[in-house]
Structure formats: structure tokens, C-alpha cells
């Protein structure tokens, strides 16, 4: 099972200048809970924005640079090779935009686990459009802003039709 996990703004915004554009502790907590104990696949820029392998997860970095090395991580030169490294175990694609686009275009994903932040943001990278002909919403939890989470947001799961 390969799942894309992402937090996006109302207009599919992902980030700006290789960084998150909002602070949503509930999303970070959910991300940790959902991905712990699993493989996480990410592009090199996403890894470098995080800065280190995340605890209790197997990190697989996708890069075209054949000399790239990070201690404690697996390195792959294609998304297909990265998926092969998961050995059929549950895995999560955590970004960035190019990796999301490749995974969706090549039909490599079974599920989408999306946090929608109900606001528009200034961004320079965007999540691909979720095609309702391909993806069916199977669950949704809506939350209103509070003292810790400054934006309204929803946790939405999609499965391939």
C-alpha cells in the first residue's frame, strides 16, 4: 500500500522557498502517528528541509544525484526504485511537489491522505489537482481553528476508484 500524505491549502498550495507556509500542530501530530513505523519516501529537497531522518521511520530519499549520501537513509534514483526498497510494506510519499506529480502521473499510489488547510496562501509549489474521476473521498474530519491551530482544516482520505 502506497499512500501520499500531504497538507495543502485551499488552492493546492504546498510550500514556499522549500518550507511549510503554515504551522498546524494537529497536522504534525497526525503525520507522526500515521507514518511512524513505516517507510517514508521523499525528494532530496524535502529531506533537506527536514534536515535529518525522522525517528521510527525508514527514510528513502529520491534524487537524480548518483553520488548523494545521507547517513541513516536509503537513496534511490527513481520513484519506482524507491517503492521497490519498501519491499511491499506500507509506505508514505511525503513530498515534494515533483515526487507527488510523478507518483500520481505514473499511477503508483493507492491512497491519498490529505490535510486541507481552508485558506489561500502565497506559495511557489502546488499539489497536483485531485481528479474525482480517479479518486473517491472515503473519509473526512473537519476542525475549526483554535489557540494551537490558527486555521480551519480537514483530514481527508481518498482511495483510487
Give your account of this protein's structure.
With 161 residues, this protein is an alpha/beta fold. The protein contains four helices and ten strands, in the order ββαβαββαβαββββ. The protein has helices at 25-35, 44-50, 79-85, 97-105; strands at residues 2-9, 13-15, 39-43, 58-62, 73-76, 91-95, 111-117, 125-126, 135-143, 153-160. The strands form two sheets. The protein has an eight-stranded mixed sheet, sandwiched between helices. A two-stranded antiparallel sheet has the order 2-8. The two termini are 15 Å apart. The model has no long low-confidence stretch (mean pLDDT 96).
Oligomer: single chain
- Please work out how many helical segments DSSP would assign: 4
Largest sheet: 8 strands, mixed
Strand order of the largest sheet: 5-4-3-6-1-7-10-9
> What is the SS-derived class?
alpha/beta
Number of strands: 10
N-to-C span: 15 Å
Which residue ranges are poorly predicted, with pLDDT under 50 across at least 5 consecutive positions?
Answer: none
Helix content: 10-25%
Large-scale geometry: globular
Give the rounded overall mean pLDDT: 96
Report strand %. 25-35%
Give the ordered list of helices and strands: EEHEHEEHEHEEEE
Q: Using the CA coordinates, give the radius of gyration.
A: 15 Å
List the helices and strands and how they pair.
Elements: E1 2-9, E2 13-15, H1 25-35, E3 39-43, H2 44-50, E4 58-62, E5 73-76, H3 79-85, E6 91-95, H4 97-105, E7 111-117, E8 125-126, E9 135-143, E10 153-160
Parallel strand pairs: 1-6, 1-7, 3-4, 3-6, 4-5
Antiparallel strand pairs: 2-8, 7-10, 9-10
Amino acid at each position: 500500500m502506497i499512500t501520499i500524505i500531504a497538507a495543502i491549502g485551499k488552492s493546492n498550495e504546498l510550500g514556499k522557498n522549500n518550507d511549510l507556509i503554515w504551522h498546524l500542530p494537529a497536522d504534525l501530530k497526525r503525520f507522526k502517528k500515521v507514518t511512524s513505523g513505516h517507510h517514508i519516501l521523499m525528494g532530496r529537497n524535502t529531506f533537506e528541509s527536514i534536515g535529518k531522518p525522522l525517528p521510527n521511520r525508514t527514510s528513502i530519499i529520491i534524487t537524480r544525484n548518483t553520488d548523494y549520501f545521507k547517513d541513516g537513509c536509503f537513496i534511490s534514483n527513481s520513484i519506482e526504485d524507491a517503492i521497490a526498497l519498501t519491499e511491499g510494506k506500507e509506505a508514505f510519499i511525503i513530498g515534494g511537489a515533483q515526487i507527488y506529480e510523478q507518483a500520481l502521473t505514473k499511477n503508483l499510489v493507492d491512497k491519498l491522505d490529505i490535510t486541507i488547510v481552508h485558506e489561500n496562501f502565497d506559495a511557489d509549489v502546488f499539489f497536483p489537482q485531485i481528479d474525482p474521476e480517479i479518486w473517491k473521498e472515503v473519509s473526512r474530519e473537519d476542525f475549526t481553528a483554535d489557540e494551537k491551530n490558527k486555521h480551519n482544516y480537514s483530514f481527508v482520505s481518498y482511495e483510487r476508484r
